[in-house]
From TrEMBL:
Protein name (Swiss-Prot/TrEMBL): Ammonium transporter
Membrane topology: Multi-pass membrane protein
Domain of life of the native organism: Eukaryota
Assigned protein family: Belongs to the ammonia transporter channel (TC 1.A.11.2) family.
This protein's UniProt keywords: Ammonia transport, Membrane, Transmembrane, Transmembrane helix, Transport
Subcellular localization(s) per the UniProt record: Cell membrane; Membrane
GO cellular component: plasma membrane
Keyword Ribonucleoprotein in record: no
């Protein structure tokens, strides 16, 4: 029997039957955390639209599909054992145990994240973080991966990569948490882990057909989707960072304002760096910079003041912009620059958090006490953040590579598509559905087969432009 009552103000009162200790849950804190859950949820399809817009149209629908597929797979994994492996209050400094297998006992008890909310509220909120992280990594598969095996990959990756890193970062038993690393909303568990995984994925898959020689064919097919996805992500990030206070308080408000400020400065910085080369104002550049700013401010959002947020945005917009050139230097094909934006952005955020974290800002919630970072003359903080960042990069990269090669030798789970499928597109080969109706109608109107039409159009964009010009001239007559 659940021992729950309500006091005169409507707060939930629960008494621990073992210790007799009384816990009071404020409905406002619960409401804010649940609202933040919904905000983070909308980020996942938003990420799908962002990725989809950056790809060619023949792969546009597959990335949006993968965003909702990831939510479903991780929701089951989180219920099955993900939450227990990450947040059980027993287990090692690296991974939890199966105490809460199948969410057994996850309801009214105080959460391990905060005694101000019950564990069931904390569980659903953290599920959204667990779901968006593999979706970030999936950007590395863009244009050249079968969709079926990705169901297995998401389940395995969530279990073997995300859960341990989140455990050591946020679980009070975790080694990084115990040593006092500051990661308010997921610099290492979310961004460094997913970005490093995307690098491993890019290296495993190899380059796309024609990469480096067909520049026009690899331009974003729908910039509107990119902007729409950025809006969803930016909107949801208020719940991602602000909600991580797990309470409706001043710390949540501070996290929200620095989040918005870092995104704004990051977007402007990246766009200006691009302008110096092209002498054009790039919507894609602004959106990329805004995402980089959001990534960088994530670990420090509950620890730094507003002036520091300007530096977070500027440094992320600058460093992540230049980091996109790493793929040309080292010869890998990271189709959506996930490593440059998320792994590098997460490292930038971790380092800056160690430098600018303030005990006074963390104390805005009325109960958090920390020694602060370099701004508070706590010098050892930087060493812990460097160690945490290096551990996140190396563990995620190594484990992702192992998962990919194990799947490579299991019948039916090999991910890389053959060249013929890559030419036709993942939407046609693996889905038989398309992002736009007119793509499917086009062959009928022209009297040619769909496959030959797509192959010709995607491999020879110049010929397509001539055809369009010719059609336009004919219609004028």
């Amino acid at each position: 029997m659940v021992n729950i009552t309500y006091d005169a103000s409507g707060s939930i009162v629960w008494q621990d039957p073992d210790t007799g200790k009384i816990f009071v849950y404020n409905p406002g804190d619960i409401a804010w955390t649940l609202a933040s859950t919904a905000l983070v949820f909308i980020m996942i399809p938003g990420l799908g639209y962002f990725y989809s817009g950056l790809l060619r149209r023949k792969n546009a629908l597959s990335m949006i599909y993968l965003s909702v597929m990831t939510i479903a797979v991780v929701s089951f994994q989180w219920f099955f054992w993900g939450f227990s492996l990450t947040f059980s209050d027993t287990g090692s400094a690296f991974i939890g145990d199966l105490r809460y297998f199948g969410l057994k006992g996850v309801l009214e008890k105080p959460s391990i994240g905060s005694a101000r909310i019950p564990s069931i509220v904390f569980c659903i909120y953290q599920l959204m973080f667990a779901a968006i992280t593999p979706m970030l990594a999936i950007g590395g598969f863009a244009d050249r991966a079968h969709l079926g095996p990705l169901l297995a990959f998401v389940f395995a990756w969530s279990t073997l990569v995300y859960d341990p890193i989140a455990c050591w970062t946020w679980n009070s038993n975790g080694w990084s948490f115990a040593h006092g690393s500051y990661d308010f909303a997921g610099g290492t568990p979310v961004h460094i882990s997913s970005g490093s995984a995307a690098l491993a994925i890019s290296i495993y898959l190899g380059k796309r057909r024609g990469y480096g020689t067909e520049a026009l064919a690899y331009k974003p097919h729908n910039t509107t989707f990119v902007v729409l996805g950025t809006v969803f992500l930016w909107f949801g990030w208020f719940g991602f960072n602000g909600g991580s206070a797990l309470s409706a308080n001043l710390r949540a408000a501070q996290a929200s304002i620095v989040t918005n400020l870092a995104a704004s400065v990051g977007g402007l910085t990246w766009m200006l760096w691009d302008y110096r080369i092209e002498r054009k104002w790039s919507a894609v550049g602004f959106c990329s910079g805004a995402i980089a700013g959001l990534v960088a401010i994530t670990p420090g959002s509950g620890f730094v003041g507003s002036p520091a947020a300007v530096l977070f945005g500027f440094m992320a917009g600058t460093i992540c912009n230049f980091a996109t050139q790493l793929k040309f230097v080292f010869g890998y094909d990271d189709s959506l620059d996930v490593f440059a934006s998320h792994a590098i952005g997460g490292i930038v955020g971790n380092i800056l958090t160690a430098l600018f974290a303030q005990a006074s800002v963390a104390g805005f919630d009325g109960f958090t006490v920390i020694p602060g970072g370099w701004l508070d003359r706590h010098w050892i903080q930087l060493a812990w953040h460097v160690a945490d960042s290096c551990a996140g990069v190396s563990y995620s990269f190594t484990m992702t590579t192992i998962i990919l090669w194990i799947m490579h030798y299991i019948p039916g789970l090999r991910i890389r598509v053959p060249e013929g499928v890559e030419i036709v597109g993942i939407d046609e080969s693996d889905m038989g559905e398309f992002a736009y109706d007119y793509v499917a109608m086009e062959p009928e109107l022209k009297g040619v087969s769909y496959v030959s039409s797509v192959v010709r159009r995607e491999s020879d964009p110049e010929s397509l432009m001539k055809e369009r010009h010719s059609s336009a001239s004919g219609s004028n007559h």
